[in-house]
Amino acid sequence: MITSSYDAHLEKKPANFQPLTPISFLERAALVFPDHVAIVHGRLRRTYREFYARARRLGSALERRGIKHGDTVSVMLANTPAMLECHYGVPMTGAVLNTLNTRLDSATIAFTLDHGETKVLITDREFSSAVKPALERAEARPLVIDYDDPEFDGAAETLGSQEYEAFLAEGDPGYERSHPGDEWDAISLNYTSGTTGNPKGVVYHHRGAYLLAIGNVVTCGMSKHPVYLWTLPMFHCNGWCFPWSISVV
């Protein structure tokens, strides 16, 4: 119903309205500062151009394996480059990122895989001792992708059908992501530790992640091009959304 002149001929259009999503932060960073270093991990250095291309490869590879809007992609990863790539590549498909707590036991992990209806699991071989029995115990049968962190030199098993880098090689670095149809669409799924029973799932939406990521910049007084030391695990509340905040500045 038109109640004033402002209600007529001022409809939402792509030029003046798009659903808020933190994916746009990486897109902008890669466009405006493509050669700026985005990731430092041991001796590894990656620029925003490379970071964005790899996230797009991940999204493309997941989509080619049938991952779509509303599917859950779980990851068992430490604070590694792959974890950052998953924070962008997974939601590019419309799927929901579930970061698993690396400190929990196999029974709790199995419950989470089942309850979250995991379709794909990307897991660092460092955590194979917990993930292997969890997969045996769970009813879910996700596609398992192994990540081999170059900074981990311990002995551990590989559990999946493919290694992460080979999986990314299947993807297109020019992949055009899907846009959330509604900024209320889910972007991530996190679980409590289950200390008072089974873990409880909590869902973030694209809008909430976008706003909190920007709020972090304001609250912490972050200046342009910060160097951020990852101390908080990114599995914990998506690192309080800092995986998205850093791309803002």
Characterization of the model:
The strands form two sheets. This protein has a seven-stranded mixed β-sheet with strand order 7-6-5-3-4-8-9, with helices on both faces. A two-stranded antiparallel sheet has the order 1-2. It has one domain (50-174, 181-248): Rossmann fold. The chain has 249 residues and is an alpha/beta fold. Helix 1 packs across helix 2, helix 1 runs parallel beside helix 9 and helix 2 crosses helix 3 (81-92). The chain is built from nine helices and nine strands.
Q: Using the CA coordinates, give the radius of gyration.
A: 19 Å
* Sequence of secondary-structure elements: HEEHEHEHEHEEHEEHHH
Indicate the overall shape: globular
Assembly annotation: single chain
Helix content: 25-40%
Number of extended strands: 9
Helix-strand category: alpha/beta
User: Strand content of the residues, in percent?
Assistant: 15-25%
Q: Looking across the biggest beta sheet, what order are the strands in?
A: 7-6-5-3-4-8-9
With helices defined by DSSP (H or I, 4 residues minimum), what is the helix count? 9
Structurally, the number of domains stands at 1
Uncertain residue ranges: none
Return the CATH class.
Alpha Beta
CATH superfamily: ANL, N-terminal domain
Judging by the overall fold, what is the CATH architecture?
3-Layer(aba) Sandwich
Describe the structure concisely for a colleague.
The chain has 249 residues and is of the alpha/beta class.
Q: What characteristics describe this protein?
A:
single chain, alpha/beta, Rossmann fold, 7-stranded mixed sheet, two-stranded antiparallel sheet, 9 helices
